[in-house]
Amino acid sequence: MARLWALRALEREQAGHSGPDAVATRWASWDVDPDDLGFDPVPAASLTEAAMAPTPVLDGDARQQIGDWLNSVAGYWATREQMAVLDGWGMPATGEDAYRILASEGFREILAIDRPDQSSGTVVIMVSADGLLASVLTHDSHGVGWIDHVRVAYNVVATDLRMLTCGVHGSSQIRVEVDEHPDRWGQPRKVRVGTVDMAPINGSGGSVRVQLAAIRAFGQPVVPWRYPVWGPVALPDGYHRDTRRIVALLPEGVHRMFGPHLTWP
Questions:
Q1: Cα–Cα dist 188/219, whole Å
Q2: Whole-angstrom Cα distance, residue 231 to residue 86?
Q3: Is 100 exposed, middle or buried (CB count within 10 Å of its CB: 0-12, 13-18, 19+)?
Q4: Domain extents for the chain?
Q5: Are 141 and 154 in contact (CB under 8 A)?
Q6: Residue 199 · residue 230 · CB < 8 Å
Q7: Distance CA 181, CA 201 (A)
Q8: What's the CA gap between 53 and 161, in Å, rounded?
Q9: What is the pLDDT along the chain (265 residues), one digit of tens a residue?
């Protein structure tokens, strides 16, 4: 949680786009009704036991403060200034930006290969010690690898599913499974399975640092993966069949770490 509070302080000091007036103005300009988003971090007392562990990670005013702030920086409505302050993206963003940011968040490069389509560029796979799989898709132009897509795939045991939902917006392929292993209170554990997707070259996807911090604050990445992630590797449109080929190229140690569900069905 300390990481999220520190990032919130940084954003509010240097960007200041997460205040109620600023957020309301952005949503109004896009004709977005916040009540339709489904991310309200309602007080923990009103949540059902099925939605979270009996002891929430945050409660009271702190829960509302962090939840409201996450809603302003973790989704597609995050501003370029917020992403620059929180993550350190260049504008436009490059592959080197992504590798630097991910490395500082505990990822190390495992594989780099040419794009499977006819474009000049690379697909780079990076892995964190706690079980997150990142991929960075770039295209080359004038000697620079520009970002097309960044994806972080995960299986996360939720300790506070509602706050995890506030902080990790990701893709439409997210799902929640009921794990066969109960938590320490004997309650069914919820495993959130999916990807965080960002296209920082056009300012969409929200802050990667904030979403990684939310995963680690409100959940526990688990390996081997309990469930397969649909499309775990960022690839060009129309080339997702190449996922199996790319995964097969990963070192044996990575396959042991993530287990059989690493292979996309």
A1: 14
A2: 27
A3: middle
A4: 2-262
A5: no
A6: no
A7: 40
A8: 8
A9: 899 999 999 988 887 666 556 655 544 554 555 554 444 443 333 333 333 344 567 888 999 899 888 988 887 778 888 888 999 888 788 999 999 999 999 999 999 999 999 889 999 999 999 999 999 999 999 999 999 999 999 999 888 888 888 888 766 567 888 766 666 666 677 888 989 888 776 656 789 999 999 999 999 999 999 889 988 999 987 887 898 899 999 999 999 999 999 976 5
Tokens representing residue 194 in the block: 């999916």
Rounded CA-CA distance 203/185 in Å is 41
Task: Using alpha carbons only, give the angle 237, 207, 174 rounded to the nearest 5 degrees.
Answer: 55
Q: Which residue has the tokens 């930006």?
A: 97
Q: How far apart are CA 170 and CA 84, in angstroms?
A: 19
Q: What are phi and psi of 147, to 5 degrees?
A: -70, 130
What value, to the nearest 5°, has the Cα angle with vertex 254 and ends 115 and 245? Answer: 35
Residue 119 DSSP one-character state: S
Provide the residue type at 138 as one letter. T
Tokens for 151, please give them. 């994806």
What backbone torsions phi and psi does residue 111 show, to the nearest 5 degrees? -155, 140
Under 8 Å between Cβ of 242 and 187: no
Question: Token pair of 69, please?
Answer: 């702030």
Taking each helix axis from N to C end, the angle separating 2-14 and 80-87, rounded to the nearest 10 degrees, works out to 130
What secondary structure letter does DSSP report for 248? H
Query: Look-up: residue for tokens 């509070």?
Result: 5
What pairing do the DSSP bridges indicate for beta strands 144-158 and 190-198?
A: antiparallel
Nearest CA among 173, 103, 167 for reference residue 134: 103
